[in-house]
Design goal:
By secondary structure, this protein is an all-alpha fold. It contains six helices and no strands.
């Protein structure tokens, strides 16, 4: 059983790392290119693996806790995001896709922040003692992601308006 837990942990760590890399490239590079689409699919699959393995990892008390619910929230976010871009079933598909990608990436970053504070020995007391440093770190990540979300929604979904001029 310990071998299975070890395998799940390593798959989780590797998929989370790949998710961070693929997600960053997808967010920061040109949109709509073949590379964007290919890395976006990679991001989706490694996020699936990352969140499914997160559900299989239990804490020291052997029960579900807050990060498990975040993994479910992330799954609920990435699945409509990929369906929206594949099916384009609504005129809002691009807004759904952008929102889902950015929110899922924030959930990934939030999890990484928690893991840093939990697993880096010098940072652990800040997490355990409820230091405001942890909250400020999350707030900065949230603000950056909200800024990205607003920027991309404005840039890629704004309707083109033309001024009417009388001749």
């Amino acid at each position: 059983m310990d071998v299975l837990k070890e395998i799940i942990s390593w798959v989780h760590i590797i998929s989370a790392t790949l998710s961070l890399v693929f997600g960053a490239v997808v967010l920061l590079e040109a949109k709509g290119s073949p590379r964007h689409r290919k890395l976006g699919i990679y991001y989706f699959y490694v996020m699936l693996i990352n969140n499914i393995t997160a559900l299989a990892i239990v804490n020291a008390f052997g029960k579900w806790f807050f990060p498990h619910w975040l993994a479910i929230a992330c799954l609920v976010t990435i699945i409509p995001g990929i369906i929206a871009v594949k099916r384009k079933w609504t005129k809002y598909w691009l807004k759904i896709h952008i929102s889902c990608l950015v929110i899922s990436y924030y959930l990934l970053i939030g999890g990484a922040i928690n893991e840093f504070f939990l697993h880096i020995k010098s940072l652990r007391p800040l997490l355990i003692n409820g230091s405001p440093v942890v909250a400020v770190t999350h707030a900065v990540a949230q603000l950056i992601c909200i800024g990205l979300l607003m920027y991309y929604l404005r840039k890629y979904t704004r309707k083109k308006t033309f001024k009417h001029t009388d001749s």
